[in-house]
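Quick question, first post here. What does this chain look like in 3D?
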Amino acid sequence: MSELQGRWALVTGATSGFGEAIARRLAAAGCHVAITGRRAERLERVAKEIRSSHRVEVATLAFDVRDRKAVSQALTEAKTVVSKLDILVNNAGLALALDPVPSAHPADSAQMIDTHVKGLLYVTRAVLPGMVERGRGHVVNIGSVAGHQVYAGGAVYAATKFAVRAISDALRYDVLGTGIRITNVEPGLAETEFSVVRFKGDQARASAVYDGTQPLRAEDVADAVHWAVTRPPHVNVQSILLMPTDQAAVPALHRRKTGT
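> Answer (accepted):
Ran it through. Tokens below.
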């Protein structure tokens, strides 16, 4: 039997990208999953596919992690599931635009801050006390290489991912002695809907980000999460900085010439 057989995980932002891949990877290992997202129709489709493929229980919770009241209401209503959670994956996130601070749209900045920082805290505060009470649990936060290295036009996005790293590091002090583990998984360049969302539907501009490179896939990040949560209970993988071989640092990419 898998180490995850019959356990429960909550994965936020599971309608696409990393979150969807993580939910599928955990379910493939026999883990029941509660998945959240803003797109209710997409959420139900993912849930149906996971149930069919992996024969596990799947709960769907449609809410925006930025909305504190919606988070509280949804997780209170799902208390039967929340009371069984062994794993929380705080994945919900996005990047918006690539503008210098003076010209960045305040709404874009607010959405990134509210999602990556406030939303992560809202969900963690709702779930973590139960884990502490039960004496077991694992919180996995999805950060970014941008939590280590800044880049032009990415001030606010990087600031939020620096915050995710700081929250993850501080949480380990908060739960020391409880048996709870905290992991921060920090991917580099990865091809998902990330760039399409960042450039607000400009597919050509989004595709150019990856031209000539072999970026990470969502499944690579899911594998890292699965590995971290299946270590023996006395082992806490504090962070995983996961980069494609074609990327040495945020601005250092190896791009192959077309046709090579």
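The first strand starts at residue 8 and ends at 11.
The chain has a mean pLDDT of 95.
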